[in-house]
């Protein structure tokens, strides 16, 4: 695969009376062709700044960016026709219909009028095409925004929170659309607060915190790097939790006592748990491995402070084991 999007050492600083704030501090990102790539970060991490800088809406202070192999922002006029994007909240004329809105955009962009009906069909708005935008729900406006980004049938599609305002059925339809677009050869960069959806839909991810990359790679690889060996143990009687924790610690396990179960790690074989507890007259009602998901990895990584060093990403350094996550997804 070839890289459709490349960012190296991207820097953006803002000056105010309070001093200098580094919105981007040597950020790196690579997106390969034909992927659905998740771009994740808590509020204030530099995610939207990255997208706006990439699209020429903000001037960077340093670093390199390339789209479809061409350096931007210098080559933006040449590659703009191959890029569709939604960044932050899209705005439309309230008294225009969806059909009129897209026809206006198509005419301005030199797109064939027939494409308007194709994209309305793709996003599920064809039956509401002649209704005024002011009658649309938030989710319908979001569908219209996606339709506008698809008008040019771009090679690279950048979507910032495309599921905003959608109900569960709409989210599923958007997921299917993104996968179909990728299978047709389009590359999709997707930013979303719905981490479970990112895990389902994306081939790869980049996670940003405090202007630095903290993780990048295939979704399965990122999850595997943070896989847990912990086991959840529930007992027939909660009164046995404390004594059972002591018995397992004597075996060499690390044990955390929760209100109705034990979290046990440090044992090669889970069968040792049942054997020891049964020997103490305690019986297990549940023994299950704790699986890691993208949300837990995200919360762990975005609670990690960036390291010092020019253009050095957090995930390129050896870090001490992280404590409880202090960051998190802003709602």
UniProtKB/TrEMBL annotation:
Entry-linked InterPro entries: AAA+_ATPase, ABC_transporter-like_ATP-bd, ABC_transporter-like_CS, P-loop_NTPase
Residue numbers spanned by region Disordered: 309-331
Superkingdom classification of source: Bacteria
Membrane spanning residue stretches: none
Pfam families for this protein: ABC_tran
SMART domains: AAA (SM00382)
Residues of the ABC transporter domain: 5-235
Keyword Transport: yes
UniProt entry keywords in alphabetical sequence: ATP-binding, Nucleotide-binding, Transport
Entry annotated with the keyword Zinc-finger: no
Any one Gene Ontology molecular-function term assigned to this protein's record: ATP hydrolysis activity
Family: Belongs to the ABC transporter superfamily.
PANTHER family per the UniProt record, alphabetical: ABC TRANSPORTER, ATP-BINDING PROTEIN
Protein name per its UniProtKB record: ABC transporter
UniProt organism field: Couchioplanes caeruleus subsp. caeruleus
Lineage: Bacteria, Bacillati, Actinomycetota, Actinomycetes, Micromonosporales
């Amino acid at each position: 695969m070839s890289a459709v999007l490349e960012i190296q050492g991207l820097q953006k600083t803002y000056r105010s009376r309070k001093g200098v704030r580094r919105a981007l501090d040597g950020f790196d990102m690579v997106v390969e062709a034909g992927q659905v790539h998740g771009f994740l970060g808590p509020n204030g991490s530099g995610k939207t700044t990255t997208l706006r800088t990439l699209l020429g809406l903000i001037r960077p202070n340093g670093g390199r960016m390339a789209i479809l192999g061409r350096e931007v922002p210098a080559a933006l006029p040449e590659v703009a026709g191959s890029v569709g994007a939604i960044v932050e909240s899209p705005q439309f004329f309230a008294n225009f219909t969806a059909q009129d809105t897209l026809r206006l955009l198509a005419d301005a962009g030199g797109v064939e009028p027939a494409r308007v009906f194709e994209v309305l069909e793709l996003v599920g708005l064809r039956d509401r095409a002649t209704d005024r935008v002011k009658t649309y729900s938030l989710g319908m406006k979001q569908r219209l925004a996606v339709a506008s980004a698809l008008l040019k049938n771009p090679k690279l599609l950048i979507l910032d929170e495309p599921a905003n305002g959608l109900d569960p059925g709409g989210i599923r339809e958007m997921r299917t659309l993104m996968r179909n677009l990728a299978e047709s050869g389009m590359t999709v960069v997707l930013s979303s607060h719905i981490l479970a959806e990112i895990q389902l839909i994306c081939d790869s991810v980049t996670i940003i915190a405090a202007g630095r990359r903290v993780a990048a790679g295939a979704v399965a690889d990122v999850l595997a790097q943070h896989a847990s060996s912990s086991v959840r143990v529930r007992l027939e009687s909660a009164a046995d939790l404390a004594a059972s924790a002591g018995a397992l610690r004597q075996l060499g396990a690390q044990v955390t006592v929760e209100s109705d179960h034990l979290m046990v790690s440090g044992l090669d074989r889970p069968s040792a748990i049942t054997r020891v507890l049964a020997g103490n007259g305690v019986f297990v009602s549940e023994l299950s491995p704790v699986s890691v998901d993208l949300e837990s990895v995200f919360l762990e990584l975005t609670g990690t402070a960036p390291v010092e060093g020019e253009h050095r990403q957090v995930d390129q350094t050896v870090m001490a084991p992280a404590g409880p996550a202090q960051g998190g997804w802003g709602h």
